[in-house]
Amino acid sequence: MTAKEIHDSIFVLDSHCDTPILLRRKGVDIGQKLQTGHVDLVRMKEGGLDASFFAIYVSNKWEPYECTFKALEACASVYDVLDRHPDKVGLATNAKTARELKKQGRIALFLGMENAGPIHKDLSLLRLFHKLGVRYITLTHTGNNEVCDSSATKEKRWNGVSPFGRELIAEMNRLGILVDVAHISDAAFYDVLKYSTRPVVSTHSCCRALCDVPRNLTDQMIKDLAAQGGVLQVTFYPTFLDKEYSVAAGPLLDAYEEAQDLYDADPVANEKCLKEAEKALFALPRPSYKKVVDHIDHVVGLVGPDHVGFGSDFDGIDVCPAGLEDVSYIPVLTEELHARGYTPRDIEKIMGGNFLRLLE
Ligand SMILES: [Zn+2]
Questions:
Q1: How far apart are the CA of 178 and the centre of ligand 1, in A?
Q2: Which of 117, 159, 179, 352 is the right S-S partner for 200, CB 3.0 to 4.6 Å?
Q3: Phi, psi values for residue 236, rounded to 5°
Q4: Using 50, 70 and 90 to split pLDDT, how confident is the model at 24?
Q5: DSSP type of residue 34
Q6: Angle at Cα 116 formed by Cα 120 and Cα 21, nearest 5°?
Q7: Ligand 1 center to residue 114 CA distance, Å?
Q8: CATH number of 3-242+287-359: 3.30.390.10, 3.40.50.450, 3.30.365.10, 3.20.20.140?
Q9: pLDDT bracket for residue 27 (50, 70, 90)
Q10: Is the pTM of this model over 0.70?
């Protein structure tokens, strides 16, 4: 079998993209091929994507009520896509529906929530978001919240998962919402493994052994996650793939994000500043897409092929690996796995089968 034949025959699933941010902020129609962003329904088809988790993201900096409101807005924007393009996409909340949609030639859209902020400390809101279709929750983002600590903070609030977080995990287990450990602190990771009665996932993280940043998982964490049946979905953000890039790009990324905020506030006055920040950032050589497969290889070396996949973080990242600039390039991963000697069966597991198993 050629890599293309394998890619066309398997179920391909991306466990994390931030496209709802684009839907809300820019009001774009992803039914068309867009010149901006990384994801639209046309490029998803080109990339052979069968399913994607659209993240309902909220910032740790927002007020609690703002979080719930913005999460509802983000859900509404995904529902608008579903309404507008019923021939191209359908909402999926389990593996069976996703497979049926593929048979009909439609892409399955799943909902994930990035940061439990919209839930406050109210399990009724969790049950409501479950009814809306949310099937995983990344417990926090770059700040400590009511549920647990973040990998990004110096000062920890709970030293792991909070008492409410423990209740939340129990209710998520009961409802069938996956617990996502991406972004959370190491202590919180181990609390989640202790409290969750179901396999847990990291929907978009890499291996700390290959790129030593707190957002990535250590070898021991990967082994413990796998021992409980979980899956690590390797992410594309160059800063998490390659330490050298991470160090060099840090200040350029900060400057770029600052310029973007200024541009959003006043596009006319700040266009030049944004262009310059963009130019400086993109002048830096980016790691190759092969780095993504290096991280996949590393996980397979530790725990075998049943506990790894990919979660792009497209539309949530400012830069992509070279050769993986948007969702239409996804087949390069299958090609690279094939070139490295992976069997069609193992490629099928890695490109979506493993994550789908947890949604059965
Ligand atoms: Zn994220």
A1: 16
A2: 179
A3: -95, -5
A4: confident
A5: P
A6: 115
A7: 7
A8: 3.20.20.140
A9: confident
A10: yes
